[in-house]
């Protein structure tokens, strides 16, 4: 039998389109990150859709909401430097996969030195995103979208 790598398992679980179901303490986490009040209010109001894809070693997370769109491109284990966030912060981040198959991100704000940890994984067909910054924890949950499959099918015709 062929052993499947953790990266492939994570990919199979995470790839697709996900719609935000619930957000806990997200505003407080964003505040600790240094996100301005206006941007935090917008983030709280919008219903976010994440589209996660992978081609070869390159991962892409496309976050789309009513007020903001952001695209993150990275390779596992390689630092991504000087990335501008939706609210204009410049950060350096590194993505890894842990022993349990969770996608992990460590991010540092280059101007303030504030660090954030994020983990993403799928449990019972729900994408769970946990963030921690300066002792504040946040959790967001997403449901798999079936619209993504319909879009792919409609593009064939």
From TrEMBL:
Molecular functions (GO terms): lipid binding
**Highest taxon above the source species:** Eukaryota
Q: Which SUPFAM superfamilies does its entry note?
A: Lipocalins
The record, for CDD domains, names:
FABP (cd00742)
Q: Keywords, A to Z?
A: Lipid-binding
* Family, per entry: Belongs to the calycin superfamily. Fatty-acid binding protein (FABP) family.
The name this protein carries in UniProt is Lipocalin/cytosolic fatty-acid binding domain-containing protein
Annotated source species? Pristionchus entomophagus
């Amino acid at each position: 039998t062929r052993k499947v790598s953790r990266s492939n398992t994570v990919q199979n679980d995470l790839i697709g389109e996900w719609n935000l179901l619930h957000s806990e303490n997200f505003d407080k986490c964003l505040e600790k990150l240094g996100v301005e009040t206006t941007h935090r209010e917008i983030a709280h109001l919008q219903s976010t859709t994440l589209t996660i894809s992978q081609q070869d070693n390159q991962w892409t997370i496309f976050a789309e909401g009513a007020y903001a769109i952001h695209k993150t491109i990275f390779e596992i284990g390689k630092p991504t430097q000087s990335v501008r966030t939706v609210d204009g912060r410049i950060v350096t981040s590194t993505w890894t996969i842990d022993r349990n198959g969770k996608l992990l991100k460590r991010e540092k704000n280059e101007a303030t030195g504030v660090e954030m940890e994020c983990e993403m994984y799928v449990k019972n067909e729900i994408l769970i995103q946990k963030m921690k910054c300066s002792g504040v924890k946040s959790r967001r949950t997403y449901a798999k979208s079936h619209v993504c499959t319909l879009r792919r099918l409609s593009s064939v015709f």
